[in-house]
Amino acid sequence: MKKRVLSGMRPTGKLHLGNLHGALANWKKLQEDYECYFFVADWHALTSDYQDTSHVQEYIWEMLIDWLAAGLDPQKATIFIQSKVPEHAELHLLFSMITPLPWLERNPTYKEQKKQLIEKDLNTYGFLGYPVLQAADILIYKAHFVPVGIDQLPHIELTREIARRFNYLYKKEVFPLPEPLLAEVPKLLGIDGRKMSKSYNNAIYLSDSPEEIRKKVSQMFTDKSRLRKRDPGHPDICNVFSFHKIYTAAEQVAEIERDCKAAKIGCVECKKIMAENLIAGLRPHQERRAYYKSHMDELKDIVAAGIKKAQAVARQTLEEAKAAVGI
Asked: What domains lie within the chain, and their CATH numbers?
């Protein structure tokens, strides 16, 4: 039997290159070796964006289109929408009864986002308690592994603590302790040199047209110390060069690196080359996007099958948990 992996994404906007080379590329590899469950975390989208839900449905289906375009295979992975499997919510309720408040209040992500997202009112139980819902998402499938970045390790440890506490309180080993699955992710920054994010308005989206990509690439920050074309460049600290290493052929990458250091190529020309290579590199993905956008019935059938399979597993786990509690 294959070990089980679970992961999800919040539908809070269009997916960008960071998502593609981060989570999606990793998920595509994982589905070959593990029993994978990948879900659209639409309830989690409400934890910070509950005041405006007008685009949630749009983002859900755009996200699913990008998942399939990126190579997720419904024959190898179970793909579903969180809110269509209400067992997540019921297990979340059970966990919320046993989770000590200090566990949630010391969550570093909770503290950090309250400071960063000052334009949003995050003084809600939903935002404080989202790690409990996250624990329910993971444990309802008895996942062995959860692919995460290093900054999410505290969330996995909290999930393990909740599982331990449940098993201890009710004298039954209902839930296994999931392990984090760390993966190396290429560091692709946004066009302004910060983390690529829709909230920073600095992302190159998987759905961007060639014209949009050229415009965004032309605005990308490069080597700050290189003020003129005749100044030698430093490719190792240039964000554009990090994209070249993914989308440009190795021989041309070596040539660009050499010419940049020797001041034989300027940043404008370098960006133009990278933009065309990026457009070409994204073309297969965008062609698959176009296919699923014009075959929505097929996409909905895939998701319906995933929901049915996920719910069968979740329902069995929930019954075990309720039996242990005695309700």
From this structure: 4-188+296-325 (3.40.50.620), 208-289 (1.10.240.10)
